[in-house]
Amino acid sequence: MAQAAPRVVVVGGGFAGASAARALKREDPRLAVALIEPNAHYTACPLSNAVIAGLRDMKAQHFGYAGLEREGIVHVPQAAARVEAERREVILADGTPIGYDRLIVAPGIELRFDALPGYDAAAVELLPHAWKAGEQTLLLRRQLEAMEDGGLVVISVPANPFRCPPGPYERASLIANYLQRHKPRSKVLILDRKDAFSKQRLFEAGWTALYPGMIEWVGESSGGGVTEVDAATRTLRTEFGEHRAAVANVIPPQRAGAIAAVAGIADATGWCPVDPVTFESRLVPNIHVIGDAAIGGAMPKSAFTANAQAKVCAGAVVALLRGEKPGEPKLINTCYSLLAPDYGISIAGVYSPRDDLLAEVEGAGGTSPLDAPPAVRAEEAVYGEAWFDTITAEAFG
Amino acid sequence: MIYRLHLLLPALWLFMAMAPAEAAPPRGAASCSGCHPRTPGNGPVPSLNGKPAEDIVSQMAAFRSGERRSTVMTRIAKGFTDEETRALAEYFASGGNAPAKPPAQPPAQP
């Protein structure tokens, strides 16, 4: 008589969690795999900036869990309320315990409403963050559509680390694209909590070429750091002054999704330190953390990273359940950004464990060439969309 | 409650309980399918599964040297040693991560 199948529970049905659940089943079809996710479908963030700019339908961002269920994964449509680590149980919102041999936590991010004075759960209705795709994405789009020509769109960007490092700058680009087509006297102002950003030279060159005079970026040391917001008047204050916006997109500081703190796997930074080989939590045994919630080296918080980590983590979990030693992994990240529908740029990196962290492999990675003809930018735009199709099929089936 | 029962009842998984454990894919292989589809499609990025190992090795060398232009592969190929590239090439040549043929239908659940 065979023994009961090992049970692996995955919390969170985004790119990381869905990819992990599927990878577990592929690695070992005997495993009992449950995905705890309260939503009936996931709304993908990559390409959601194109939705904001009116270039893409929101429905193209929705992915359900039927593909996972066909593979024998049990989708539990509830939130995880807490984790009883010693008993190896996840307690659902309705009190039901689900036992596990190994737990994979992939809760994504939680927006911090304690970090930027004036920006709280109520303010998001006036100053959308749109940093979790969904209703917020559509709210920002509606605000842009309702804005009069000549209005100032302000985007407030947090310090590192945060979800999708190039995302704010892609957003500025595609909002400018919308404004250029519909409200050409308007401008975009980016107020930034840091002095350098991902693919900066490529973005700046693209802005000069595509949207001359329309996008202004102000870094931290030039007074870009937003210290306070007033939602009612759409005012953003910095150490150097204040800006009244017609539309304000406030991307606040972030931390790992709420269950991470409840489960005791987040440290004082708010993120979850992990082992770079197994993605097992440094703080609680038998719990693994992947995707945006995890920290432990140089990998940026992207959907590609989440999917790559999920597959490595699933392999490690299967090995550990068999009493084997997981192999040293090597992971890739690739991230395309759109500056216009036919203008894409990219960054890529290769990572492997070094000094207990995931470090960049030297000599590899980097960004698109700075001096490339339009055909290369157009090609990268096509590849970016193809990547979206592949990664969503990879995560959700 | 139904979810918990489902997890505790191993019946669904028992029918495959004797399946052999497969060797882990080579270092780095898991990331490739972030862009390279497991089955051939209409997109610009080819599926690697079933490609001849020699082709993968030579293309990776061409990406690394810059002889072949690409979007991201020139930057990614530089992150893999000859030995790792060879292991990846043999893995994909012998089927790689192509979806498994559908298994025999599990018994219907009561």
Q: What is the arithmetic mean of pLDDT of chain A? A: 97
> Which class do the helix and strand fractions of chain B yield?
mainly alpha
According to CATH, the fold-level topology of the largest domain in chain A is FAD/NAD(P)-binding domain
Give the full name of the CATH homologous superfamily of the largest domain in chain A.
Answer: FAD/NAD(P)-binding domain
- Ranges of chain A with pLDDT <50 over ≥5 residues? none
Largest sheet of chain A: 5 strands, parallel
| Portion of residues within helices of chain B | 40-55%
What's the gyration radius of chain B in Å? Answer: 19 Å
Secondary-structure content class of chain A = alpha/beta
Runs of chain B with pLDDT <50, length 5+? 8-21
Order of helices and strands of chain B: HHHHHH
Summarize the amount of helix of chain A as a percent range: 25-40%
3D shape of chain B: globular
Question: How many DSSP E strands of chain B?
Answer: 0
Strand content of chain B: under 5%
Number of helices of chain A: 9
Q: Could you say how many structural domains of chain A there are in total?
A: 2
